[in-house]
Fold:
Amino acid sequence: MSFRIGQGYDVHRLIEGRRLVLGGEVIPFDRGLDGYSDADVLLHAPGDALLGAAGLGDLGSHFPPGDPRWENADSCDLLREIFLKVRDEGFRVVNCDLTLIAEAPKLAPYSSSIRRRLADLLEIEVDAVGLKATTNEKLGWIGRGEGMAATAVVLLKRK
Ligand code: MG
Structure:
């Protein structure tokens, strides 16, 4: 039996004139995350965690910013593509656990649909998807609302 653990971390800046997409949900907010794709931190962090666990590099090497294929890309497509690469290496996902670090908005109303989406993308049960949110207690750049961060861990099992 062979297990692999991976961790991921992502940050995007909040700017005006962009829609906010978190975990594939479009969330009403006065600003959105800036980035080449849809800048969905809650999907980029588990993407990096999956790649790390499988020893497949990082998100930037698979989806280089500036590549027109990924301009405004739906990060659900990126995460699914990563999942398929990892599955091709003979792994399945056991569980994943995510934390969003942001002063606002509240994630709770969207939490169950985000977990459902992640479960579908990673081919696991909903109860194998952990999703938490915390503020940064108004400290530093996250506390000032300049951006958001997300962390993720995933556990893989070799089939
Ligand atoms: Mg990112």
Remarks:
- Helices lie at 41-54, 59-62, 75-88, 108-122, 140-143.
